[in-house]
Each structure stands twice: as C-alpha cells, then as structure tokens.
Amino acid sequence: PKRARGPAAKRPGGGGGGAAKSGPTRDMELQLMASGYTAVGGADEAGRGPLAGPVVAAVVVLPPPSDASWRPPPGLNDSKAISEEEREAIYESLTTDPRVKWAVSVIDHQEIDRINILQAALGAMRRSAVQLLQQH
C-alpha cells in the first residue's frame, strides 16, 4: 500500500495558536484514499511548550469515511476547546473502539536534551507511526 507523509498544509511543528489554522480535513483524507492510500493517519504531540518533562506523540487512524456505522465523537476537532471531562470521554471512546487504530510514544527529557525538542517531537511521531504499522 502507498504511504503518505501528509498534506503540506499540516506538518509536524507547524501551527500552535494565534490566527485561524488550516489543517487536514476529512476531504483531504478522501482525496488521498481515492488516489490509492488504504489508510490515512493523523499525528500530534504534547510537551513542546514546557521547560521540563517528556514529549508525547500519538498517531491515530480513524475508520474510513465509507464506514457508515462510525461517527467521530463530538468535540474531536480541538482538544483545547473542550473540558477535561469531554477529553477523557473522547479518549475512552477512541481507545476502546477496535476500529480506531492508534499508537503513542514518549521521549524523555534526557533524549530531548541530547537531540532538541523539535527532533524529539518528530521522533516521537515517527516512533508512533512505526508502532502502528507493526501492529498490522
């Protein structure tokens, strides 16, 4: 199967608040799948802002749009726009649904100090993607 790095509109490390953000959409996913990709995953990280601690990244592959039995949980679009309780409910919904594929990686502060925070975030995303691929 073909593997994509993702649309140029959303690269790891880009964005981060401020003005309106453009990013991946379900339409972009449909376009990639129509061109031959069998799955499209999204990656994100947490921990680039703090001065200490690990960086954590996840890659998630949602069921394809053709799966009419699955709908994204309400609020999935932006975790910063919902309450902690809503985030926890979405997390539970996604991580317990066997149709949702996901993997998480953590890079500790020693490795961040050695390679820098950007490389750590990118590395955590890469590790998560590799873990996801190895699950299948």
Strand content: 5-15%
**Total strand segments:** 3
What is the rounded distance between the termini? 12 Å
Most strands sheet: 3 strands, antiparallel
The structural class is alpha+beta
Count of helices?
4
Oligomer status: single chain
Helix content range:
25-40%
N-to-C order of helices and strands: HEEHEHH
- How many whole angstroms does the radius of gyration measure? 15 Å
Principal-axes geometry comes out as globular
Mean pLDDT, to the nearest integer, reads 84
List segments where confidence is low: pLDDT < 50 over at least 5 consecutive residues.
6-19
Question: What's the helix and strand layout?
Answer:
Elements: H1 26-34, E1 42-46, E2 55-61, H2 84-95, E3 101-107, H3 109-115, H4 117-134
Helix pairs in contact: 3-4
Describe it.
Belongs to the RNase HII family. Residues 1-28 are annotated as: Disordered. Its main location: cytoplasm. The protein has 136 residues and is an alpha+beta fold. 34% of the residues lie in helices and 14% in strands. The chain is built from 4 helices and 3 strands, in the order αββαβαα. A 3-stranded antiparallel sheet has the order 1-2-3. A hairpin with an 8-residue loop joins β1 and β2 (55-61). α3 crosses α4. The longest helix has 18 residues, at 117-134. Residues 6-19 have low confidence and may be disordered.
